[in-house]
Specification:
Low-confidence stretches: 163-167
Protein name: Transcriptional repressor NrdR
Number of domains: 2
Strand content: 15-25%
Number of helices: 5
Domain ATP-cone: 46-136
InterPro entries: ATP-cone_dom (IPR005144), NrdR-like_N (IPR055173), RNR_NrdR-like (IPR003796)
Shape: elongated
Cofactor: Zn(2+)
Largest sheet: 3 strands, antiparallel
Number of strands: 6
Radius of gyration: 24 Å
Zinc finger (unnamed): 3-34
Order of helices and strands: EEEEEHHEHHH
Protein backbone atom coordinates (compact mmCIF):
# COMPACT_ATOMS: atom_id res chain seq x y z
CA UNK A 1 0.00 0.00 0.00
CA UNK A 2 1.52 3.30 -1.10
CA UNK A 3 1.51 6.15 1.38
CA UNK A 4 -0.96 8.82 0.18
CA UNK A 5 1.32 11.58 1.53
CA UNK A 6 4.85 10.71 0.37
CA UNK A 7 4.06 7.83 -2.06
CA UNK A 8 6.45 5.50 -0.20
CA UNK A 9 5.86 1.94 -1.46
CA UNK A 10 5.30 0.36 1.94
CA UNK A 11 3.21 0.89 5.07
CA UNK A 12 2.71 -0.88 8.36
CA UNK A 13 -0.68 -1.95 9.77
CA UNK A 14 -1.21 -0.39 13.20
CA UNK A 15 -4.79 -1.54 13.87
CA UNK A 16 -7.46 -3.64 12.11
CA UNK A 17 -11.21 -3.70 12.76
CA UNK A 18 -14.27 -4.96 10.97
CA UNK A 19 -16.30 -2.12 9.52
CA UNK A 20 -19.92 -1.56 8.51
CA UNK A 21 -21.82 -4.85 8.60
CA UNK A 22 -18.76 -7.06 8.79
CA UNK A 23 -18.22 -7.22 5.04
CA UNK A 24 -15.11 -5.03 5.12
CA UNK A 25 -12.01 -4.43 7.24
CA UNK A 26 -10.81 -1.00 8.33
CA UNK A 27 -7.04 -0.83 8.68
CA UNK A 28 -5.09 1.98 10.33
CA UNK A 29 -1.67 2.21 8.68
CA UNK A 30 1.54 4.14 9.26
CA UNK A 31 4.16 5.04 6.69
CA UNK A 32 7.72 4.10 7.83
CA UNK A 33 9.12 6.92 5.70
CA UNK A 34 7.12 10.01 6.76
CA UNK A 35 5.53 8.43 9.89
CA UNK A 36 2.07 9.76 8.96
CA UNK A 37 -1.00 7.61 9.53
CA UNK A 38 -3.88 6.87 7.18
CA UNK A 39 -6.84 4.53 6.96
CA UNK A 40 -7.71 1.96 4.31
CA UNK A 41 -10.86 -0.09 3.93
CA UNK A 42 -10.64 -3.54 2.40
CA UNK A 43 -13.78 -5.17 1.11
CA UNK A 44 -14.49 -8.36 -0.74
CA UNK A 45 -16.34 -7.97 -3.99
CA UNK A 46 -19.36 -10.00 -5.02
CA UNK A 47 -20.36 -9.87 -8.66
CA UNK A 48 -23.56 -10.98 -10.32
CA UNK A 49 -23.51 -12.37 -13.85
CA UNK A 50 -26.73 -11.35 -15.55
CA UNK A 51 -28.48 -13.43 -18.22
CA UNK A 52 -27.09 -11.11 -20.90
CA UNK A 53 -23.55 -11.97 -19.75
CA UNK A 54 -22.94 -8.53 -18.23
CA UNK A 55 -21.28 -8.60 -14.80
CA UNK A 56 -22.18 -6.06 -12.14
CA UNK A 57 -21.58 -5.59 -8.43
CA UNK A 58 -24.10 -7.28 -6.09
CA UNK A 59 -26.58 -4.72 -4.78
CA UNK A 60 -28.80 -5.18 -1.75
CA UNK A 61 -30.85 -2.28 -3.07
CA UNK A 62 -31.67 -4.25 -6.24
CA UNK A 63 -32.79 -7.20 -4.11
CA UNK A 64 -34.99 -4.88 -2.06
CA UNK A 65 -36.55 -3.22 -5.11
CA UNK A 66 -37.28 -6.59 -6.72
CA UNK A 67 -38.87 -8.00 -3.59
CA UNK A 68 -40.71 -4.74 -2.80
CA UNK A 69 -42.89 -5.27 -5.89
CA UNK A 70 -43.92 -8.71 -4.64
CA UNK A 71 -44.66 -7.25 -1.18
CA UNK A 72 -46.91 -4.46 -2.43
CA UNK A 73 -50.03 -4.26 -0.25
CA UNK A 74 -48.60 -6.78 2.24
CA UNK A 75 -47.69 -6.08 5.89
CA UNK A 76 -43.96 -6.00 5.15
CA UNK A 77 -41.90 -3.01 6.26
CA UNK A 78 -38.68 -1.50 4.96
CA UNK A 79 -36.75 -3.01 7.87
CA UNK A 80 -38.04 -6.45 6.90
CA UNK A 81 -36.86 -5.90 3.33
CA UNK A 82 -33.44 -4.71 4.48
CA UNK A 83 -33.04 -7.79 6.70
CA UNK A 84 -34.10 -10.04 3.83
CA UNK A 85 -31.54 -8.44 1.50
CA UNK A 86 -28.82 -8.83 4.13
CA UNK A 87 -29.73 -12.49 4.61
CA UNK A 88 -29.66 -13.08 0.85
CA UNK A 89 -26.20 -11.50 0.63
CA UNK A 90 -24.97 -13.60 3.56
CA UNK A 91 -26.31 -16.80 1.94
CA UNK A 92 -24.52 -15.99 -1.31
CA UNK A 93 -21.26 -14.95 0.37
CA UNK A 94 -21.31 -18.15 2.46
CA UNK A 95 -20.79 -20.08 -0.78
CA UNK A 96 -17.31 -18.60 -0.93
CA UNK A 97 -17.37 -17.57 -4.58
CA UNK A 98 -16.81 -14.10 -6.01
CA UNK A 99 -19.23 -14.37 -8.97
CA UNK A 100 -22.76 -15.77 -8.98
CA UNK A 101 -25.39 -16.04 -11.67
CA UNK A 102 -28.45 -13.81 -11.37
CA UNK A 103 -30.56 -16.99 -11.16
CA UNK A 104 -28.70 -17.99 -7.99
CA UNK A 105 -29.58 -14.64 -6.43
CA UNK A 106 -33.24 -15.28 -7.25
CA UNK A 107 -33.08 -18.74 -5.71
CA UNK A 108 -31.43 -17.30 -2.59
CA UNK A 109 -34.35 -14.84 -2.27
CA UNK A 110 -37.07 -17.49 -2.33
CA UNK A 111 -36.59 -19.13 1.10
CA UNK A 112 -36.22 -15.94 3.19
CA UNK A 113 -39.20 -14.44 1.33
CA UNK A 114 -41.32 -17.54 2.00
CA UNK A 115 -40.57 -17.14 5.71
CA UNK A 116 -41.34 -13.41 5.59
CA UNK A 117 -44.66 -13.48 3.70
CA UNK A 118 -46.18 -16.40 1.81
CA UNK A 119 -48.32 -14.28 -0.52
CA UNK A 120 -45.29 -12.18 -1.51
CA UNK A 121 -43.38 -15.45 -1.98
CA UNK A 122 -46.03 -16.73 -4.40
CA UNK A 123 -45.98 -13.48 -6.34
CA UNK A 124 -42.16 -13.49 -6.61
CA UNK A 125 -41.96 -17.19 -7.40
CA UNK A 126 -44.65 -16.91 -10.07
CA UNK A 127 -42.56 -14.37 -11.98
CA UNK A 128 -39.11 -15.72 -11.14
CA UNK A 129 -39.95 -19.37 -11.80
CA UNK A 130 -42.21 -18.53 -14.73
CA UNK A 131 -45.53 -19.96 -13.55
CA UNK A 132 -47.69 -20.25 -16.64
CA UNK A 133 -50.67 -22.29 -15.46
CA UNK A 134 -52.99 -22.73 -12.52
CA UNK A 135 -51.29 -26.05 -11.84
CA UNK A 136 -48.02 -24.23 -11.12
CA UNK A 137 -49.77 -22.06 -8.52
CA UNK A 138 -51.60 -25.07 -7.07
CA UNK A 139 -48.34 -26.99 -6.68
CA UNK A 140 -46.68 -24.05 -4.91
CA UNK A 141 -49.70 -23.52 -2.63
CA UNK A 142 -49.82 -27.26 -1.93
CA UNK A 143 -46.18 -27.17 -0.88
CA UNK A 144 -46.83 -24.23 1.46
CA UNK A 145 -49.86 -26.00 2.97
CA UNK A 146 -47.88 -29.20 3.52
CA UNK A 147 -45.15 -27.24 5.33
CA UNK A 148 -47.74 -25.44 7.47
CA UNK A 149 -49.55 -28.69 8.33
CA UNK A 150 -46.27 -30.39 9.25
CA UNK A 151 -45.35 -27.47 11.53
CA UNK A 152 -48.79 -27.58 13.20
CA UNK A 153 -48.54 -31.36 13.68
CA UNK A 154 -45.07 -31.01 15.18
CA UNK A 155 -46.29 -28.29 17.57
CA UNK A 156 -49.32 -30.38 18.61
CA UNK A 157 -47.10 -33.41 19.08
CA UNK A 158 -44.85 -31.44 21.39
CA UNK A 159 -47.84 -30.11 23.38
CA UNK A 160 -49.65 -33.46 23.41
CA UNK A 161 -46.61 -35.34 24.66
CA UNK A 162 -46.26 -33.09 27.70
CA UNK A 163 -49.95 -33.32 28.56
CA UNK A 164 -50.07 -37.13 28.42
CA UNK A 165 -47.26 -37.48 30.97
CA UNK A 166 -49.35 -35.74 33.62
CA UNK A 167 -52.11 -38.42 33.55
Amino acid sequence: MHCPFCRHADSRVVDSRTAEDGSSIRRRRQCPNCMRRFTTIEATSLSVIKRSGVTEEFSRQKVISGVRKACQGRPVGEDDLAKLAQRVEELIRARGIAEVDADEVGLAILEPLRELDQVAYLRFASVYQGFDSLEDFEAAIGSLRAERDAAIAAAEGADGGAGSEQS
